[in-house]
Amino acid sequence: MEGTKVMKKVQIEDIIIANHALKDIVTHTPLQKNEILSERYQCNVYLKREDLQIVRSFKLRGAYNKIQSLTEEERKKGVVCASAGNHAQGVAYSCNALKIKGKIFMPSTTPRQKINSVTRFGGEFVEIVLIGDTFDDSSTKAMECCKQEGKVFIHPFDDPHVIAGQGTLAMEILNDIDEEVDYIFAAIGGGGLISGVGTYVKAISPKTQIIGVEPEGAPSMKISMDQNEIVTLDKIDKFVDGAAVKTVGEMNFEICKELLAGVTVVPEGKVCSTILELYNENAIVVEPAGALSIAALDFNKDKIKGKTVVCVVSGGNNDISRMQEMKEKSLIYEGLMHYFIVNFPQRAGALREFLDEVLGPDDDITRFEYTKKNNKDNGPALVGLELKNRMDYEPLINRMKKKGFKYKELNKDMDLFNLLI
User: Fold this and answer.
1) Domain-by-domain residue ranges, the chain?
2) Beta bridge mates, 384
3) Is 117 one of the catalytic residues?
4) 220 is catalytic
5) What is the pLDDT of residues 66-100, one digit of tens each?
6) Per the residue annotation, which of 103, 314, 329, 330 is the catalytic one?
7) What is the CATH architecture assignment of 335-420?
8) What is the CATH number of domain 12-57+165-326?
9) Residue 2 confidence (pLDDT)
10) Residue 357 gets which letter from DSSP?
């Protein structure tokens, strides 16, 4: 961490040196033009496929570059890191490759798929400690471990060697593309990726605009840049686990203030819609953080029209068991899934009337549960409805009112929604 404070700014030379150190370790991932996205947004959209990296994310670049830079004495002490998953995999792979002992602290909420991958990549050289609910909780415990055991902390983003390592993917982008890049979109968690990409790109192609992307539930960089100081968020939504960070890095914040053209904040539901579209249309499997850059195109479609755009697909470590949750979040965001508490009128045949005269021909009941088990004829019920078209919502509400069905829409009451759904 002392090196972070001494080295105030990462230079392009650091990224070039890092690229040399990584050339036999990381995969030079493809830069692919995506015809579907290009047609949809009327521009040239290229995907930098870091989901095809060895550990299925860009994190190996920064982790290995940092660990290989350690002195022999530091290597003997071993390393410690905190991570929501992808940085942990990068550190684990690096520890195994360099034969260095590592202790990896991960939030207890980390998907099982990522935990298993860390074990596989690290083998006998890593020990996993699951603790806390967020990255920040794990990071606090990891720092305590460093002090107690004298190990070297491998920061996931606020470190010059890590930033330089992440910047090597920007070298690949500019080397692989034959046209001038107008925009590069990349996810922001703590800011390591966007800092490395921005440092290299702005030095080589100063006209290229760098846009960071954050999830709506954890916009720590956007808020910090708006207030011109680092702001620690009180609470965050952990769904986009690879970018759910309460506090961005100091170095990263300073670099982003100088180099970023802006930060786009994307709702978690839109992230889920993007994940499903990428899978269904392109057979590309991405994790929530990996979908951020592509999800942001919808919020920038006017400015990117006719331009050349690169989206960094930062990771593909998606847990298949989360897909049902992602589908539901997507449907809610798209206005196709609605949950109600419906109070059925105290008259015979009310339920049949609801089914026959309130529901539209294409409406589908996905959940029906009486809240009072002993009064099913006229008690309130939890009803989940999936619509075929979001335009069917208003007619549904009008029919419910006309027929005298009193209701409460849970989509608009997040306290009740989180309690019941």
Assistant:
1) 12-57+165-326, 79-150, 335-420
2) 339, 367
3) no
4) no
5) 999 999 999 999 999 998 789 999 999 999 999 99
6) 314
7) 2-Layer Sandwich (3.30)
8) 3.40.50.1100
9) 39
10) I
